Amino acid sequence: MKDYIEERAIGIANYIIENNATVRQTAKQFGISKSTVHKDVTERLMQINPTLAKEARKVLDVNKSERHIRGGLATKEKYLHQHELGIQ
Fold this sequence. Notes:
Blueprint: H1 3-19, H2 23-30, H3 34-48, H4 50-85
Helix pairs in contact: 1-3, 1-4, 2-3, 3-4
């Protein structure tokens, strides 16, 4: 594995842990795809630093379990905003 990929995977994991970030937020921060973030954390990082990979995975698992709640809140906010503007 190339050095820059290893460094990116470690950086991604640290960002996720420090910021309690989602895959989407992390991908945007690093300018890469969500699938690259996922692959770096779940596959590549396990070869480089299994302990760090497990910590990052815990954060991602919590985020995944809560995503339906965040999605529902976003939809609620959208419709409340449309109602305020008089859009139906």
